[in-house]
Amino acid sequence: MADRARLSDPLEDWLRQEQPPFRIRRGVSFTAVNVNGYTEANSIQHTFLSYFQLIPVYLKALVGFHGPRQKVPILRDLDGLVRPGEMLLVLGRPESGCTTFLKTMAGYVHGVEVVQHDEGNGILYEGTSFDEMHRRYWGETIYLAEDDIHLPKLTLEETLAFAAEMRPLGQQQSPGVISRQTAAIYGLERALHTQAFLSGCPIQCCDNSIRGLDSATAMKVVRTLRAVANARGSTIMTTIYQAPETLYFQFDMSMIFRSVGSLSRTYAQSLAPVSIMIFNFIIYAGFVIPPPDQSDDQRIPASTVRMLDHGSVGPGYDAESSTLDGKICSAIGSVAGQSWVEGDRYLRLKYGYSIQHLWRNLGILFALMAGFCAVHLTAAEYIQAERSKGDILLFRRTKLSSTRHHAPADEESTEDAIRITEKSSSPESSSPLGEMRQTAQGLADKQFSSVFFWRNVGYEVKTDKKKEPTRILKGVDEWVKQGTLTALMGSTGAGKTTLLDVLANRKSLGMVYGEVRIDERLRDRCFQRKTGYVQQADIHLPTATVREALEFSALLRQPRDRSRQEKLAYVDTVLQMLQMEPYAEAVVGVPGKGLNIEQRKRLTIAVEMAARPELLFLDEPTSGLDSQTAWSICTLLRQLSDKGQAILCTVHQPSAELFQMFDRLLLLQEGKTLYFGDLGPSASTLIDYFSRSGACRMPDESENPAEWILNVTASSPTASASGSSWAEVWDTSPEAETVKREIKLMQTTRMTGDYVPSPSPNTAQEDYEYAAPGLTQLWLVTYRLTSFLFSCFLLTILFNTVDQQIIPRFLDNRAAFEARERQSKTYSWPVFVAANLIVELVWQSLAAIPVFVAWYYPTGFWRNGLQDNNANSVGMSSRAGLIFLLLWLFFIFSATLSQAIAAGLHDVLTAVNIANLLFTLCLLFCGILVQPAALPRFWIFLYRVSPVTYLMGGMISAAVANALLRCASVDLLRISWPTTQNLSTASCGTYLAPYIQRTGGQVLNLNATAIAGEDCVFCAVTDMNTVLAEMGVDVSMRWRDLGLFAVYVAANIAGTFGMYWLTRRKPS
């Protein structure tokens, strides 16, 4: 049972006080429960062509036939009971079914099959069946995922107040007061748990709830959960991968699994469809394409150009007369004898809009709004995003057969492999661990013979101009040398990651002071590429394979004097060392479809090892891993260190076994050093120092020394013997004086005792900021970013969907580059920008070809070349070539403009909105929707600078130049004969000839006469050139327009480089 005597009674009293007077308590029992998942027999990464092969599969799925699927047993024959007020600890390796168990108990079972053999048993909640519980009482269970997902715009207080108000715990105090008290209880370390606490659910399932926390903070969180269980009778089930020894005593029982796990769904599928829907709404609203023209693709209404044209007239059609007898306006909806056009009539004839429908249309808009809201709320209620599935390895089809001999045949084979790893411990063993020891020599053959040390290192950041800078690191002195594995520890917020970033030269903001040297030399410009930095976040390109990720690192970061064959052979050594050969050809993918947590962490380490680093920094390499995997990773680090690798590693909550693998410890608190030195056997040297310095208690015989030292320094900020802070005790200690003397000796003496200086760098080979030449960088990065999967989105979408696809992709690539490759000097930022541009240039060029074929020929524009008998005729080949070049440049323009905007911004939504705004302005002022003559003089400059002006000018000229036009019936003008003139012998042709000679147009009934009482039927235009001229388009300038539009594309490319430099690389 849990050790409840040590719990905080005031906390429990407060919890009991704030709960409602009547509260349901529910336990859970489960008997012979099985959970299965389903997946395809062969999981491959789809490419552009493979999606066409999937069309029959999708059609079959629509009618309910899913084809052959493989059943994957996740949980098998589970039995157990958790009573109200008890806490269950669920233990197991990643992918063993722990997450699936918690989701099943909470009712989150989408994508899996829950099998209950006995209707009377199965899963019961105090007598309530599983189905009834999650149908009628689904608000009484909650599942807390491992990742902390919150609304980023809300403050912590607003988030907690909302949770308190939606699920009130009682009426004694307001939700705001309760939320602040709750945040204080948790110390603001983990807002996720405070939300679950405020929800007040009787059954709470927490997935790896202490990931990323040090042991002291983790203990506070678990003790608070323990208090909630005691005071409110909540049933709490949680998984913990690396649990401190003392934490186990807070639980009532535990459960250990041995299975395989899970299934999932992703985002971003709605962007393209929604954009296309909105675009269609705008196009078919009647303004861009009038209703009469939506059924006749070939009709070009002349009225879009000749609006209210009273015209200049000649002898027969006299404008000098003060009367309007026999005259008509040339606009749609005009009436003979009127000098004006009624707006209602014009809108009705031109666009189909009627004033009588005004209030009806408003009602329809409200109905649509209500309908969309209903759909949104229904979807939000019943369709859950990010549904979980198992982590399924994906292989490229060409690599699938070559990898089958590596993969276990079934689940039992996988478990056998795990058991072998657990039992192996002999260096000569043929097990994976034995192979580790045998292969480590090859990995660390380039030993770091120098000493890396730092003296009086500090770091401060100015968060407010009116306040003094915040000092995060304060006077840290230590070193790392060949063959040592040094642990960097401290409570949450102690400055561990900050120190690692400062030492690795990865801080671009704030002020760093102090000395950081290698022997007597300061860090040079190639320091970053010769050091490895394993970050907490496992950031990888999802479309690359494991082997490609390692080869990319090896080819770009290993020294130039090594051949390509040597670098690629070293990749095989790394794969063997880290036991990654079975999935070397697997695609990295995304969570749920790709590598699992452990495999991603191994890949992160392998990518850095592939560079043959002289120094290796690791930031929380065991965070989020189970104890066995953490032991495997630390064993790997130990082997590398034994073969000469210098390693500095931050750790949060190492077990006693893991703690013993380290040689030295650097302990920080609030940015200051509390201890630096050897650990000694069973941490005896560390324990001896703190016991002499006034530790409040000695560790118990079975207590983990790492947890003991964190608890001692956290619970007692001062040493009991002297009353000084632990940092002050260290500064005045003999050990600190010894460290300072050693550092001074390292700096002044190049060869003393055990220290062997590294040879001077060969400037011809080593003194490069980047290991690979610029062209090699550009080729490898361009090849890496090329993705067949992404190209399928770019075939039939316009700018507003192009930018929504390119901008997130660019920002994701930039985040990965700046987090790892730029910091490690793998390749330069101009190479990154150029590679992204080249990739889009290739795919946009390929996309332009089918779009051109699918648009140019079905529209019939090519026929205009057959009928062109004009003196300045434009041939068929010239038309087609010009339109293709303009269409191709438009695709390039869309991509480069999107990248230029993305290069200067941080947020995806902001970048997309700005891109759409700029392009909308270009469309509005290009001369099509609003003619240049109709623009106010102030805005005419936008018409001149809009790139779409020249795109439309060249494209329309090539498409319809010299084409003959015919008026639609709504565009025809019926001109009555004037009653004040004697025109008995005149025909419509002779009557309107002077007018046509001066203004253009054509009479459709030339021989109609006044005597016959026939009106003259007049069309205001004859050929397209006249129409284009009034739009500001000069047909003879079509090739000039192509050149000017190409200039805009070049400006976008230059702007991409400029914006990146200005916002990301410009010295501050």
Automatic annotation (TrEMBL):
Subcellular location: Cell membrane
Record's bilayer topology term: Multi-pass membrane protein
UniProt cross-references to Pfam families, sorted A to Z: ABC2_membrane, ABC_tran, PDR_CDR
Positions of transmembrane segments: 267-289, 358-379, 778-799, 829-857, 877-902, 914-935, 941-965, 1042-1062
InterPro entries listed in its UniProt record: AAA+_ATPase, ABC2_TM, ABC_transporter-like_ATP-bd, ABCG_PDR_2, P-loop_NTPase, PDR_CDR_ABC
Molecular function per GO: ABC-type transporter activity; ATP binding; ATP hydrolysis activity
Sorted UniProt keywords: ATP-binding, Cell membrane, Membrane, Nucleotide-binding, Transmembrane, Transmembrane helix, Transport
Annotated ranges, domain ABC transporter: 446-695
Positions of the UniProt region annotated as Disordered: 404-438
Main location: membrane
A GO cellular-component term linked to this record: plasma membrane
Family designation: Belongs to the ABC transporter superfamily. ABCG family. PDR (TC 3.A.1.205) subfamily.
PANTHER family for the chain: ATP-BINDING CASSETTE TRANSPORTER
Official protein name in the record: ABC transporter domain-containing protein
Organism: Aspergillus homomorphus (strain CBS 101889)
